[in-house]
């Protein structure tokens, strides 16, 4: 009888250890493997529109009309990464994942000034007292301090209607993700000031996308 | 001695398999995985945050995807109708709901294991009922009003409602009240 309890105990021990390892460690391992694969396939600090199997690795329920892109941010060696491009004219969401898969920063088009996209990611480890730097606007550039030296940025753009899909894809293909020296704040601020003027022009310009289709009207009751 | 070691190895291996299977089962179980549930719909709104429930996070990684952003958007998932029967492609369904207090929404139909959508409906394209509600029909045959075509191959489905531009005040309310009822019609 004691022997039976012994084997049941061994079985339960194996089950509990495997359960905990699978639940607590597997997601982190999978996330690191995913980031490693992205690093190999996309390179670093390069914006790449996502399609096919790679898209399905990053987005659980991809939508055919939506446009997706990713950039592996490497801001470890005294450099920042800038995401810059035209206004996307559709709702968008940007999510930054740490190498462990956690969402460490997220923003949507409703949280930035209208006009061109200009976001600068910098590595700012937490201070000794644990305080972390907060995102700030510098001229018209959004500066986002990240506590990790490497991360994955995923951009999702959702056209308002099917007629806007092609325009959105063209605009997303114009986005650039590139590294710049961390010490070039003054130059970046000047360039941002110049872009601010351009952004105003772009906002005031006539929209290039076709307008939404008219909602079908019901016939009046006889 | 060798026989004892072999038995120990087999029992530990069987326990490990049971442990992994139970973890997968827990991740698929909405209550254990910490899902917010409203009618037939369920959501894991905080799976991406650092202190997320481990099972909620595991759920995404088992599908091989990163968890979505918790900011400003929500992904509601339905695998069953209001009577608890699995959604299948050889049945018709009728969804009835209201216009949601969000900036925009998209409803999409996927195979049960995820992947790209086979059909979708934008809020901009939804035809409203005279009382302002929204009725969506799912089926293989063309139907009047808002219609989402189901794939020709038999199999289970998942219905996803993507919500964009959610006010933090509305978020909890949306998670407590089912956005659409799901009723099964005739089956092939």
Would you give an account of this structure?
Chain A is α+β, with helices and mostly antiparallel strands. Chain A has a single domain, classed as Immunoglobulin-like. Chain A is 35% helix and 27% strand. Chain A has 4 helices and 10 strands. Chain A has helices spanning 2-42, 52-58, 165-173, 185-204, and strands at residues 48-49, 67-74, 79-85, 92-97, 103-108, 117-123, 136-138, 141-146, 150-157, 176-181. In chain A, the strands form 2 sheets. Chain A has a 5-stranded antiparallel sheet with strand order 1-2-9-4-5, with helices on both faces. Chain A has a 5-stranded mixed sheet with strand order 7-8-6-3-10, with helices on one face. In chain A, strand 7 and strand 8 (141-146) form a beta hairpin. The longest helix of chain A is centred in the N-terminal third of the chain and has 41 residues, at 2-42. Mean pLDDT of chain A is 80; it is low at 186-210. Chain B is an alpha+beta fold. Chain B has one domain (35-52, 67-187): Jelly Rolls (Sandwich). Chain B is built from 3 helices and 10 strands. Chain B has a 6-stranded antiparallel sheet, covered by helices on one side. Chain B has a 4-stranded mixed sheet with strand order 8-7-4-10, with no helix packed on it. The longest helix of chain B is centred in the first third of the chain and has 27 residues, at 2-28. Chain B is globular and about 80 Å long. The N and C termini of chain B lie far apart (61 Å). At the A-B interface, helix 1, helix 2, strand 4 and strand 5 of A face helix 1, helix 2, strand 5, strand 6 and strand 9 of B.
Q: In percent, how much strand structure appears in the residues of chain B?
A: 25-35%
Instruction: Give the termini distance of chain A in whole angstroms.
Output: 85 Å
Which CATH top level class of chain B fits? Mainly Beta
Q: What structural class do you assign from the helix and strand content of chain B?
A: alpha+beta
Contiguous low-pLDDT stretches of chain A (5 residues minimum) are 186-210
Main sheet strand line-up of chain A: 1-2-9-4-5
In DSSP terms, counting alpha (H) and pi (I) runs of 4 or more, how many helices of chain B? 3
CATH class of chain A: Mainly Beta
Percentage of residues in helical conformation of chain B? 10-25%
**Biggest β-sheet strands, sense, barrel of chain B:** 6 strands, antiparallel
Q: CA-to-CA gap between the ends of chain B? A: 61 Å
Within the CATH hierarchy, at the fold level, what is the topology of chain B? Jelly Rolls
CATH third-tier fold name of chain A = Immunoglobulin-like
């Amino acid at each position: 009888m004691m022997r039976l309890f012994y084997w049941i105990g061994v079985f339960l021990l194996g089950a509990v250890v495997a359960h905990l390892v699978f639940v607590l460690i597997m997601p982190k391992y999978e996330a690191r493997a995913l980031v490693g694969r992205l690093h190999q396939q996309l390179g670093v600090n390069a914006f790449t529109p996502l399609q096919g199997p790679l898209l399905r690795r990053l987005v659980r329920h991809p939508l055919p009309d939506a446009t997706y892109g990713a950039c592996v941010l490497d801001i470890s060696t005294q450099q920042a990464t800038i995401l810059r491009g035209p206004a996307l004219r559709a709702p968008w969401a940007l999510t930054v994942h740490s190498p462990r898969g956690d969402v460490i920063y997220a923003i949507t088009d409703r949280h930035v000034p209208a006009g061109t996209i200009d976001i600068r990611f910098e590595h700012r480890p937490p201070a000794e007292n644990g305080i972390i730097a907060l995102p700030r606007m510098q001229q018209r550039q959004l500066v986002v301090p990240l506590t990790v030296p490497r991360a994955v940025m995923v951009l999702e753009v959702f056209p308002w209607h099917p007629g806007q899909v092609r325009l959105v894809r063209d605009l997303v293909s114009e986005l650039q993700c590139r590294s710049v020296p961390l010490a070039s704040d003054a130059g970046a601020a000047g360039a941002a000031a110049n872009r601010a003027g351009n952004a105003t022009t772009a906002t005031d310009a006539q929209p290039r996308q076709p307008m939404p289709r008219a909602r079908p009207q019901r016939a009046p009751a006889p | 001695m060798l026989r004892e070691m072999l038995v120990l190895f087999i029992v530990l291996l069987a326990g490990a398999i049971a442990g992994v299977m139970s973890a997968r089962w827990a991740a698929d179980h909405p209550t254990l995985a910490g899902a917010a549930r409203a009618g037939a719909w369920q959501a894991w709104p905080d799976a991406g945050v650092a202190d997320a429930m481990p099972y909620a996070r595991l759920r995404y990684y088992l599908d091989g995807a990163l968890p979505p952003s918790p900011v400003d958007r929500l992904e509601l998932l339905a695998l069953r109708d209001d009577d608890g029967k699995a959604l299948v492609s050889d049945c018709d369904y009728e969804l009835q709901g209201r216009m949601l207090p969000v900036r925009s929404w998209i409803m999409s139909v996927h195979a049960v294991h995820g992947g790209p959508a086979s059909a979708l409906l934008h809020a901009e394209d939804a035809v409203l009922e005279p009382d302002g509600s929204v009725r969506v029909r799912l089926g293989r045959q063309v139907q009047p009003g808002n219609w989402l075509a189901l794939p020709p191959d038999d199999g289970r489905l998942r219905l996803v409602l993507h919500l964009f531009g959610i006010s933090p005040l509305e978020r909890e309310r949306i998670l407590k009240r089912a956005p659409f009822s799901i009723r099964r019609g005739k089956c092939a």
